[in-house]
Amino acid sequence: MSHRGGGDEEAGEQRGVGQGTWAVPVPWLQSLQSVALAEISLSGEVLSANDGFYVLLQRPPGSTVDDVARYLVNPTFAELAATASRAAPGEAVYRGLITFVDQLGEPHSLLSRVFRHNDHLGLVAEHDVHEHQRLFAAVMRLNDELANQQRALTRANRELAREKAEQKRLLQELASAQAHLLQSAQLASVGQLAAGVAHEINNPLGFVASNLTTLGRYVADLLAVIDAYAAAEGLIGCDASVLKSILAVRERCDIDFVREDAGTLVSESADGVARVARIVRDLKDFSRINESEWQVVDLHACIESTLNVACHELRQTAEVVREYGVLPELHCCPSQLNRVFMNLLVNAMQSMDGARPGQIFLRTGRTGDQLWIEIEDNGEGIAPENLQRIFDPFFSTRPIGAGTGLGLASAWGIVSRHGGRIEVRSAPGEGSCFRVWLPLSPKASAWPAAEQ
After folding, report:
1. Within 10 A of 108 (CB to CB), how many other CB atoms are there?
2. Would you say residue 246 lies in a domain?
3. With a threshold of 0.70, does the pTM exceed it?
4. Quick check: helix, strand or coil at residue 73?
5. Final residue before a domain boundary, out of 79, 94, 118
6. Ordered per-residue pLDDT tens for the chain, 452 residues
């Protein structure tokens, strides 16, 4: 360490600092620049100092500093000297931040300890706080840049997620459209066949119905003739053989029973023909799968029409329980809604396990400005993991070849295009309930242009 004035001690000599000593730094402390060590007289003259102290003042090592007071600004050298004059040897005069102004006027704040050493001040100072502040500011700038990059990355991830969701939605729409086209093509063939069959049935049905009407009139006329002959029995009573022959024929033919039963037979036959005609009409209506004309219809009539078409399968599978509410007429595409009801009925029938009598409940009602149609069954139910997928095109829990997985997907698409929705509740072993919601005023413009 450099010395001047009364500092003629040799390196390694120790000076007392109260009960301790002021050690002349070893050579590596002399050259240390991160820590400032100095011995300063109470008049402000630097008696000895290491290189770190001169670096702090921006002065050449070993140069003369007669007045350190002009470099000390907080606390001032006068404050330190006054405190030291009242302190005992070795007692700390100041601990904390001390600010120097270097030769160029730049401030430097350091953590320091100042103590009284004999009649002088001993100074140990380290860590330039301003440098730490500059480093901290640089770190904060880097953190800000990193935060900005993270925000940009987050925005990019969000945009990527949005694009991915949009792609998923488009793929789902494409799959739905493909399923719709496939099912439409399949049902078109079925519809053409059903329409042809209905037409062929209608031809003989027409003349059978006409003939039954005529037969009814003929039977009535014949019975009238018989009544006329019966009235004349008294006139032919004189000829016992003729009367006996007539009575034998009457007994053999059981005219009284024929009279009673003939009208019933003709009436039941006419009712049966009317029922066949109704089924054929419903089949023809249901077969118009490519018709998308919007009409004001009675939804109960649509449901009954669908039930008539499916009556054979329903009769073998489940009992249908109707719990209809009061519904106003709805502006909709009835042929498409018939497909929805048929698909839901088929789904309900397929869920029957045969372990108990099958039941399908049909309920309707109105809530606010919406109508609802509910189809509930007591079948096997749907597993929770499948509930979110049942409307996906081609998803099916049926064995391979037993189902296309398009029925519920098609129903969802039709109801969605009517501005409605389908809700499902189900549990394994407890059956399923599908509720179709339809707005009272759906927009026909919501239907694809190709289907209008």
Report:
1. 20
2. no
3. no
4. strand
5. 118
6. 444 433 333 333 333 333 334 444 456 677 777 788 889 898 889 888 888 888 888 888 888 888 888 888 889 989 998 888 888 888 888 988 888 888 888 888 888 889 898 888 988 887 665 656 666 677 788 888 888 898 889 899 999 999 888 888 888 777 766 666 655 555 554 555 455 556 656 666 666 677 677 777 767 767 776 776 666 666 665 667 766 776 777 677 766 777 777 777 777 777 777 777 776 666 666 555 445 578 888 999 889 888 887 777 777 788 899 999 999 999 988 888 888 898 898 888 888 876 678 899 999 999 999 999 999 998 888 888 887 778 776 666 655 444 555 678 878 888 988 899 999 998 888 889 999 999 987 664 444 433 43
Note down the domain range covering 438. Answer: 291-452
Q: Is 408 among the domain residues? A: yes
Of the residues 86, 118, 150, which one is the last residue of a structural domain?
118
Distance CA 347, CA 362 (A): 14
Task: Please tell me the distance from the alpha carbon of residue 418 to that of residue 446, in angstroms, as a whole number.
Answer: 7
Query: For the chain, what is the domain count?
Result: 2
Report which secondary-structure segment, H or E, holds 256. Answer: helix 255-286
Specify if 9 maps to a domain.
yes
Count CA atoms within 13 Å of residue 317 on its CB side.
20
3-class DSSP assignment, residue 111 = strand
Q: Is residue 410, in this structure, part of any structural domain at all?
A: yes
